[in-house]
Amino acid sequence: MYVDTHAHIYLNHFTDDIDEVINRSLKNKVDRIYLPNIDRTTIKDVKKLQTLYPSICFGQMGLHPCSVKENFEDELKLMKKELEENTFYAIGETGIDLYWDKTFVDQQISAFKKQIEWSKDLNLPIVIHSRDSLDLTIKCIKEAQDGRLFGIFHCFNGSVEQAKQIIELGFFMGMGGVISFKNAGMDKVLNQVPLDNLVLETDAPYLAPVPFRGKRNEPSYIPHIAKKLAEIQNITLKEVAEITTKNANTVYLHTPQSIENESKA
Fold it and tell me: Of 27, 72, 118, 183, which one is least surrounded by beta carbons within 10 A?
């Protein structure tokens, strides 16, 4: 079985066929899908999918860096309230994005650091967005790491040295469709990174793997990502499925809250 550790299937890209999307996922042995929140506009939809598919869809709560604006403190108050009143399986997605807009970079850093503290206080994993900011996000985690921080650097596309730093911090790296892109060059990095430190993700509806590149991504494509990872590391598809699923469970089933809810599912 597989786990999709990062998918936004609550977005309107899936409004018309979400049941079929879930069924295709199960048919392709993807039986867990983790849903990172974006901002206040997506909270309701994340919670709705958790309710509709309680044994398959598992929500996360956080403020995406691209949604950090002047009112980010109000947004964070709302996220914190949700975390206090509902069950979520991670803080996320959060982090720093220096690709789209650097206008609010200081506020992004502040929001990220606040959510790092939530992760420690609530004993929940943190899911990190680090587009064009990998060194900076690693630095923030390194400064805050006191043995309580754990989680995933989502959509990792860094160097071997950056991967080593992430591993030393006790974090995992999310592998998605990008590893199947010829021009990404991730094969040269991933053949030097232990599978024990990797998890699978789609980031659906974005970044669909080959042969679906350019189309809407969805969790049922996880086996294509797994197959590419198996090719890069010269191991079996079964090994990829077993070890990445174990890694995902290490992250998301770590907390007493998660384990309690899992036993009720």
Answer: 183
Where do the domains of the chain lie? 2-264
Q: How far apart are CA 62 and CA 94, in angstroms?
A: 6
Contact 14, 21 (CB under 8 A): yes
Q: What is the pLDDT of residues 199-237, one digit of tens each?
A: 999 999 999 999 999 999 999 999 999 999 999 999 999
pLDDT at 259: 35
For residue 156, give the nearest of 139, 138, 174, 144 by alpha carbon.
174
Give the three-state DSSP class for 199. Answer: strand
Q: What confidence score (pLDDT) does residue 253 get?
A: 82
The dihedral built from the CA positions of residue 97, 99, 101 and 102, taken in this order, carries a sign that is positive
Task: Report yes or no: 232 and 179 within 8 Å, Cβ to Cβ.
Answer: yes
User: What torsion, rounded to 10 degrees, do the Cα atoms 114, 65, 160, 32 define?
Assistant: 90
Nearest-5° Cα angle at 48, 221 to 149: 70
* CA atoms of 246 and 228, how far apart (whole Å): 19
DSSP string, 72-101: HHHHHHHHHHHHHHS--S-EEEEE---SS-
CATH fit for domain 2-264, picks 3.20.20.140, 3.20.20.80, 3.40.30.10, 3.20.20.60: 3.20.20.140
Residue in 138, 141, 173, 179 with CA at minimum distance from that of residue 248: 173
Does this model's pTM top 0.70? My answer is yes
Q: What pLDDT, in 10s, does the model give residues 114-129?
A: 999 999 999 999 999 9
Name the token pair of 122.
């609530």
Which residue from 201, 114, 107, 194 is spatially nearest to 152, judged by alpha carbons?
Answer: 201
Q: Read off the tokens for 21.
A: 């999307």
